[in-house]
Structures are given as C-alpha cells and as structure tokens.
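User: Run a structure prediction on this.
Assistant: Running it now.
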Amino acid sequence: MAITSIKSINSKQDLEKALKRVDELWDVAEPNTPKGEELVMLTQLIEDYELANIVSQRVDQEEIEVNIDDL
C-alpha cells in the first residue's frame, strides 16, 4: 500500500491491510519523510474507522454494570 493509494478504510479487510502496513512502517518511518507521512495518514484513517465502526458498536451494546464489592 503506497501513500498514493490511501483513500479511506471502508471495511475490515481495508483495516487489516492498513494495520499490516503500519506494522511494516513502524520501525522504519522517519518524521517528515514519505514513509513518515504515510504512517501518520494511516494511523488517522485507522482511528477514524475504529471510532465510526468499532466504538459505535460498543456504545450500542447493553452496558453491564458490576459492583466490585459483589465479586
């Protein structure tokens, strides 16, 4: 996945590809370089996808309240 191909993350498959690319870039990307900019862009896209999809799913689920003293 090159920086020019990054547009958005619309599915779990896109998310997996983006996470794999982040893993590849994590130790080699330097700030203010093409790889560094790609890493920043990917992490923002991943965060946006997770907030829109994963976090909203958790909010929709019924909350489970547990009192620690009852355990």
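The two ends are 48 Å apart (CA to CA).
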